[in-house]
Amino acid sequence: MTEENVSTVGEPEAVASAGEAPAGEALLRVEGLRKHFPVHAGLLRRQVAAVKAVDGVSFSVRKGETLGLVGESGCGKTTTGRMIMKLLDSTAGSIFFEGRDITKLSQGGMRPLRRDIQMIFQDPYSSLNPRKTVGSIVGAPFGLQKIETPNGTKKAVQELLELVGLNPEHYNRYPHEFSGGQRQRIGIARTLALRPKLIVADEPVSALDVSIQAQVVNLLEDLQDELGLTYVVIAHDLSVVRHISDRVAVMYLGKIVEIADQADLYTAPMHPYTNALLSAVPVPDPGAARGRERIRLTGDVPSPLNPPPACHFHPRCWKAQVICKEVEPPLALLAPGHEVACHFPENAPDGYVAPESTPLVRKVDAV
Amino acid sequence: MRSALIVLVSLVVFAALAPCWARWTGHPPQLAFPAFGLRPDGTPVPPGGRFWLGADGLGRDVLVRAAYAARTSLLTGFAATALATFLGVAAGLAGGFLGGAADAVVARGTEVLLAFPFLLAALAAAVVLGGGPLVVVPVVAVALAAPMARAVRARVLHVRELAYVEAARALGASPWRVMTGEVLPALAGPVVALAVLLLPAAVAAESTLAYLGAAQGTSWGAMLADGQEAYRTAWWTLLVPGGLLLAATLACAVLGDALTRRLP
User: Fold this and answer.
1) Inter-chain residue contact B167 with A187, CB threshold 8 Å
2) I need a labelling partner for B137 at 20 to 30 A (CA). Which of A158, A176, A220, B259 fits?
3) Which residue spans traverse the membrane (chain B) (predicted)?
4) Is B239 helix (H, G, I), strand (E, B) or coil?
């Protein structure tokens, strides 16, 4: 065991300033990550198809920043998170953590790294073992990683509980004695026990009441400032993502269609899908909502078993042309820090030349 | 639930007091008393007087024999249930948690066991290997392990996908640690409830083997077999062991049912 691993819990370390690495260095880098779930059929269980849950995703997360990963249900954002956590093996692609390729690490080889990469779970009800006390849940990481705490595990756990805004006296209580928001705080305390560098938060607030969501989001931000954490926040709530993220990646059917700084993405979205998503965000102001144009997409998200050719979004896109179903648009840097995978982006910067193509002829759905 | 517990505890006490019954009545279980136990026409004497629950066809004391038989039946039942629970939990946990080939073996194995005529196999084993408790208990246990393994496997398949199991993996828990520390405790409720439901099946299975003459020793089943010859003139030879067997199995069934509803 090395010295830095026995650091006391609860004492705010200057992690951010201690890092000698220049700002902007990638803590996590993902390249061409894919996850295909095979579909077997027949007597011989031959593979007949694959669900392309994640189909070539690349991004990087800088130290200390928060990357939001948004998209509809089934777009592969959770699968991506589980692959980063190595809870799920990837089909192809690479994951680099602090420059080290962790893609092929075994579960045993991954164990020491689990101190640095941790996860916050969506459901605060199923993510805490109902048969264990808060003390043993939050203290479990110390035992699993064989970390010695200078003042004993109980003290360390109580400091963690205090850190996430819970009463340390609740050490011996069971999860069912707490509300959803408190339970999520318990989960966050467990996540923080190992002092991770990177936290993958899979829908950290979507199971919570709206009034509690803000509290937990603010807690996550405070902890980031205090402990110098890096987050990958997976969510479908665009308002939450806007609040917490520095950069946002939008996923559609297993691919990233747009990735940009939070402010750019929300004020000048380029991909039509992002535009549609943003126009669907509820506005809690009837006056403003009335004057707003809402983009209604037709149809459903196609099956990842058999995604549309080239641009996955073209069957639902109002700007689609023939090229969209023939040539897949690459994720291209169209503005500083703003990458888009679209032939005909909205809010395109000056000088962008759209490819030559003919309009796509298709059935128009009767409305 | 309370009445079922009272019945079960009374039965255990009744069985535990077997030597006392023998001393108080002065009738050892294996000894026949043709002089007092049988009437001049050769039929057993009814309950009352020297024989509190009557005598059987050979002039033995039905009360004392029933108490000793309770020991055999309950002990065999408990032992077989315990062994079945252990085997079933081990197999179900291994199959459900490991998946793949191990799971296929467990799933097909339980199906074969459930499809196989238990009585035939048990009789064959008891006849070939002798009907001692060391044969009867494992034979009954293997048969009862199948439903336990099935239930455990189904539960494991559910629990291992829960987020708290994933959280343990994300913290770096080894598969063994996840299995024993997170999955196994979640099985306690269903396993206890099912074990209580298997207990009457084990008692009844032992009695069936004894009734058919395949298990040695004095048990309720053996008493029923003996009583079959005398019951026309002596109803108590069937009613006493039959009633005790019914009480034991019914109480277990009621208790198991209540536990199933009460435990998570």
Assistant:
1) yes
2) B259
3) 78-100, 112-129, 187-214, 234-256
4) helix
For residue B151 the two structure tokens come to: 């239930």
CA torsion angle for B179, B185, B187, B190 (degrees, to 10)? 170
- Chain B nearest C-alpha distance from A183 (Å): 12
3-state DSSP assignment of residue A321 = strand
Chain A residue with minimal CA distance to B169? A87
Q: Do A110 and B172 touch (CB under 8 A)?
A: yes
* Chain A CB contacts of B173 below 8 Å: 140, 144
Q: What residues in chain A have per-residue pLDDT under 70?
A: 1-24, 289, 291, 361-367
Pair of tokens at residue A279? 């126009």
Q: Which of A61, A23, A63, A21 is nearest to A197 (CA)?
A: A63
Query: For the segment A26-37, what is each residue's pLDDT rounded down to a tens digit?
Result: 899 999 999 999
* B100 CB within 8 Å of a chain A CB: no
- What is the pLDDT, as a whole number, of residue A355? 80
- Whether A118 sits inside 8 A of B171 (CB atoms) is yes
Query: Over the stretch A279-335, which tens digit does the pLDDT of each residue have?
Result: 888 777 777 767 677 788 877 888 888 888 889 998 888 888 888 888 899 888 888
CATH code for the domain defined by A3-116+196-340 = 3.40.50.300
Whole-number Cα distances in Å, B169 to A104, A219, B164, B182: 17, 25, 9, 10
